[in-house]
Design brief:
Radius of gyration: 14 Å
Oligomer: single chain
Order of helices and strands: EEHHEEHEHE
Helix content: 25-40%
Number of strands: 6
Mean pLDDT: 95
């Protein structure tokens, strides 16, 4: 099992050598406009454009909680749009994060990372606007990624 590395920095500028997969959490409403996605969109237009098309055409595809869309943004960098959030606001039904959906999505990320020989990079997914707790997310990363020998780097932005 590989250790999860924690670093200060920008997850859209992943550190290290080789192929890198940047994983982040999206909502199930097709909304893209707050949080980490803004940093992604500043660097590459493709993840947002592909997510919006995926959502718009959801009647004919797999879009939904737990689904993942992989977008190649450079020869060695991929972005994983993981649908792990129900809605966008904390309200009477609690926080938007859906741990089961993130767990399912991380399983797909692990498979793709293994295929690509990639390491996985991310902010503290599910803990910002989604309202989740890192103490619930970290064990999912360990089970789905680290236990398979996939390198994981978590970025805390300055």
């Amino acid at each position: 099992m590989t250790e999860i590395m924690y670093v200060r920095g920008d997850a859209t500028a992943p550190q290290g050598k080789g192929v890198k997969l940047i994983a982040h959490v999206c909502n199930d409403l097709g909304g893209w406009g707050k949080g980490f996605v803004l940093a992604l969109s500043r660097r590459w237009p493709e993840p947002e454009a592909r997510y919006r098309t995926w959502h718009r055409e959801r009647a004919g595809n797999d879009f939904g909680l737990g689904a993942v869309q992989f977008v190649q943004v450079s020869p060695y960098i991929w972005v994983a749009n993981m649908v792990g959030q129900r809605g966008m606001r904390t309200g009477s039904k609690g926080v938007p994060v859906r741990y089961e959906a993130i767990d399912t999505a991380l399983g797909a990320v692990a498979g793709r990372a293994a295929e690509l020989g990639a390491s996985v990079h991310m902010p503290r997914i599910g803990c910002g606007l989604a309202g989740g707790k890192w103490s619930r997310i970290e064990p999912l990363l360990e089970q789905r990624l680290s236990s398979r020998g996939i390198g994981v780097t978590v970025y805390d932005h300055d």
